[in-house]
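Bumping my old thread because nobody answered last time. Still need a sequence for this structure:
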């Protein structure tokens, strides 16, 4: 396989994403990655504080969510929980994933949409954990009761959801498929709570993509209809 074939394949897969990201970087410079930088610093901060006994108690009160906790407590802690690294995920791995996924999203769909999609995917995962552990073993969406005590934190659900949404939105179909297959394979091999939440995040991202596609088609149809009925100017 020669270089021209590789270049064409790379352009076909990542060309639209690359051009959008480059344009945003040229227009705003380092400010284009403000959300990514702040998010990475928060992950590092909470990881460092969590290393000390008194700090761990503080982090637990501020951002650790479990399915056994009341809804009001969980919802109050949820906005912070996304930046508290999961116990099974090394701190620097969490930072790398945040830089990769949040950075790609912030450069293409903007900071506010990145934050909205990330929180939506994480929240659906958290809600599914509560719902799943409350269902009987025969239920399709049942999760083991032991998951109710698992510490439900970290940015990984947001990372997975953003990865799928950005890849598909900018035409990187094989990359999007890779995100889905890798997530499903990891969940099948190691069926932990995080894996099931990642699957819920994928479903959320897919629904957001579907809604975005419908909205775009309706907007295009409306614009076409308006142009068709617009009165012609008299010379």
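Sorry it took so long. Here it is:
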């Amino acid at each position: 396989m020669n270089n021209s074939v590789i270049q064409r394949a790379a352009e076909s897969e990542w060309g639209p994403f690359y051009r959008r990201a480059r344009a945003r970087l040229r227009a705003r410079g380092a400010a284009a990655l403000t959300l990514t930088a702040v998010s990475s610093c928060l992950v590092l901060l909470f990881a460092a504080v969590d290393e000390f006994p008194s700090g761990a108690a503080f982090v637990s009160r501020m951002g650790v969510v479990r399915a056994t906790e009341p809804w009001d407590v969980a919802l109050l802690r949820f906005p912070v929980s996304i930046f508290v690294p999961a116990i099974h995920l090394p701190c620097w791995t969490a930072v790398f994933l945040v830089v990769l996924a949040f950075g790609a999203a912030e450069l293409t769909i903007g900071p506010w949409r990145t934050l909205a999609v990330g929180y939506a995917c994480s929240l659906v995962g958290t809600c599914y954990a509560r719902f799943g552990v409350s269902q009987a073993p025969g239920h399709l969406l049942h999760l083991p009761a032991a998951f109710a005590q698992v510490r439900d934190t970290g940015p990984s659900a947001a990372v997975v959801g953003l990865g799928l949404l950005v890849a598909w939105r900018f035409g990187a179909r094989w990359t999007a498929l890779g995100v889905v297959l890798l997530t499903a394979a990891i969940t099948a091999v190691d069926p932990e709570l995080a894996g099931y939440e990642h699957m819920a995040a994928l479903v959320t991202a897919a629904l957001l993509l579907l809604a975005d596609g419908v909205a775009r088609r309706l907007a295009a149809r409306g614009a076409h209809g308006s142009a068709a009925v617009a009165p012609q100017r008299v010379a």
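The mean pLDDT is 89. Let me know if any region looks off to you.
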